[in-house]
Amino acid sequence: MTHATHIRGEHLPTALSLAAAGVPVLPLRAGKVPFGNCRNCANNACGGRPNMKTPGPCTCPAPCHGWAAATTDPAVINSRAWARAWREAAAVGYHPGGTGLTVVDLDNADAIAWARETLPATRTVPTIRGEHWLYRGAMASANAVRSGVDIKSSMSYARWLGHGAGTMAALPDVVRALIVREPAPVRPAAVTVPAPAGGGTCPHRTPTFLERGIAMAEQRIAETASAVHNTVFGAFLAVLSTHGRCGCLTPAHTERLFAAAQAKGESPRHCADAWANALTRLGL
């Protein structure tokens, strides 16, 4: 048995087994990269899957188009068109989003330490330099969401490194929020906020009005299922737009809002930044 045949014999059964379990697979070259497009598909001559960002109409039988080539069809995986790729393959790749999964790729010890402090426990798979944390649920993919952390899910691929250990948890909001960028601060001059009557004196007839506003903001944050960063910012902005100029907000109110945000996975720094951005937006 030649070395190439041995490699094909190692990766092909793994790919077929994964495909039978509903996991879309593709062969990967050395360096964990997919095979490039064939001559017919080079430079998007086929008109399909431009830049491998979205699946397109191309029906090329070869494992072209990166993640978009991933399949669960055993006839395709075992076909002559894929045979050369399996002979040259260094690993099996899979499309996490295609099987309803998200991989949090932790590339070093610092990233792992952050995940253990921040993310819900879930199934983990050791990698050469770090760990893959697997969650049930798909989302958009993004690289470098923080130092040493990539998100691999929809329109992306990951290297298959085994089933891992632990019970797989549902995809949490704190992971979804990693790809959400907080709105940039707006110059105060660009926003018009009418000054309250009474030259800064609280115009509200009863403290109940403020209590209701804080409670509504807490509820809004607690009930959000996605885009936590934007929801927290919006809640802070709503409270400050109503109560920020009259002097009725106290540190106790701010602490309640920050506690609600941190319960959804926001860090104290993100809370402080969102509060500062809301103040800037309103010119306070």
Offer a few descriptive terms.
elongated, single chain, 284 residues, alpha+beta, disordered N terminus, 9 helices, four-stranded antiparallel β-sheet, six-stranded mixed β-sheet, 37% helix
How does the SSE layout of this entry go?
Elements: H1 3-20, E1 25-29, E2 33-34, H2 74-77, H3 80-88, E3 91-94, E4 101-106, H4 109-118, E5 123-126, E6 131-136, E7 142-146, E8 149-152, E9 158-159, E10 169-170, H5 173-176, H6 207-223, H7 228-243, H8 251-263, H9 268-282
Parallel strand pairs: 6-10
Antiparallel strand pairs: 1-2, 1-3, 3-9, 4-6, 4-8, 5-6, 7-8
Share in helix: 25-40%
Give the rounded overall mean pLDDT: 82
Largest sheet: 6 strands, mixed
What is the strand content?
5-15%
Provide the gyration radius in Å.
25 Å
Distance between the termini: 75 Å
Given the C-alpha coordinates, what overall shape results?
A: elongated
Structural class: alpha+beta
The number of distinct helices, counting runs of at least 4 residues, comes to 9
Annotation, overall tally of beta strands: 10
Q: What is the helix/strand order? A: HEEHHEEHEEEEEEHHHHH
Ranges with pLDDT <50 over ≥5 residues? Answer: 1-8, 186-200
